[in-house]
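FAQ

Q: What does a record look like?
A: Structure on top, sequence underneath. For example:
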């Protein structure tokens, strides 16, 4: 059992902290939201009045915050220089690679071990303890973080040095965004060409066009396994979060001069769908409705 400070108990952090409690740890929780804190308390965490109070005496500090600016604020105002230097620092938020590297650098200069450990898997995986963690940082820091991450996930992979977890996450999600759009336009065209869509699914999921966005997460209602498309595109991975990740990917691409025309186009299309057409709250496969309105209600 360890004393863990957990900061950021929203949709994802709430379930993750609850799994650490179930694994027998003493989790001291802090969030700016009263509702998030009350839920964490109901799940067995103890409530802290501030981030600084949560981290006093902690052996591990875990953060699950919205974006880079929140991570920078929390680490620079309440964690670095205030947590015991023996604590392992683990940031699970999805943020830009540059901020992740900067904060890990600052933490290491102050004598801490720290990793970036963003996740793949949504709210259900956070609650069920089946997240995939992609981790960046020194090998020794990874080995210290691994047992805790294993209690919240089904796979924990060391991606490389500081920021490599974030790099892997945005590369993966850039591919996912582009492949979802390609899947949507393909089904829209197949329909217009008169193909039966389940038959086309059966063919293409066994042929060279096969990809996860089609075979496992088909955006067409009633085709393939049950997916958010069968629930009016509710639940799943929100288009607004896909757009956030595509923006991070484009920022990263620019910083290393990578040519990413498909990623750039995916970002443009998700901007149109999430920001201009009000689709941000729907699952990211709902972008099929922008491509062809046959699937709109
Ligand atoms: P969320 O907005 O539900 O939760 C974030 C929490 O952080 C909120 O409760 C907020 O009050 C709290 N917070 C913000 N600033 C704070 C501060 N200074 N001190 C303490 N608490 C603070 O977001 P989420 O859906 O839980 O996502 C968290 C991270 O996980 C994001 O980076 C997101 O991109 C990533 N992610 C989300 C999903 C998903 O499906 N929701 C999947 C994979 C990754």
């Amino acid at each position: 059992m360890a004393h863990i400070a957990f900061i950021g108990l929203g949709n994802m952090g709430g379930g993750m902290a609850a799994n650490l409690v179930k694994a027998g740890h003493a989790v001291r929780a802090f969030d700016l939201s009263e509702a998030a804190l009350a839920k964490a308390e109901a799940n067995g965490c103890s409530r802290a009045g501030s981030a600084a109070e949560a981290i006093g005496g902690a052996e591990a500090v875990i953060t699950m915050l919205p974006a880079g600016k929140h991570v920078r604020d929390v680490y620079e105002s309440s964690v670095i220089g205030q947590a015991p230097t023996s604590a392992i620092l683990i940031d699970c938020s999805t943020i830009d690679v540059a901020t992740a590297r900067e904060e890990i650098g600052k933490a290491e200069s102050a004598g801490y071990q720290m990793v970036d450990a963003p996740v793949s898997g949504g709210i259900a995986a956070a609650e069920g303890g089946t997240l995939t963690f992609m981790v960046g940082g020194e090998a020794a820091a990874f080995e210290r973080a691994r047992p805790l991450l294993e209690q919240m996930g089904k796979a924990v992979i060391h991606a490389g040095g500081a920021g490599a977890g974030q790099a892997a996450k945005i590369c993966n999600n850039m591919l996912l965004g582009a492949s979802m759009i390609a899947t949507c336009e393909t089904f829209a065209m197949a329909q217009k060409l008169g193909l039966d869509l389940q038959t086309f699914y059966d063919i293409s999921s066994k042929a060279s066009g096969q990809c996860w966005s089609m075979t496992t997460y088909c955006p067409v209602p009633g085709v393939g396994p049950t997916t958010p498309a069968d629930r009016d595109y509710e639940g799943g991975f929100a288009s607004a979060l896909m757009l956030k990740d595509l923006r991070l990917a484009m920022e990263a691409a620019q910083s290393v001069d990578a040519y990413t025309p498909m990623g750039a186009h995916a970002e443009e299309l998700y901007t149109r769908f999430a920001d201009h057409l009000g689709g941000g709250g729907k699952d990211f496969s709902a972008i099929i409705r922008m491509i062809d309105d046959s699937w709109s209600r």
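Q: Is there anything notable about this one?
A: The first helix runs from residue 11 to 22.
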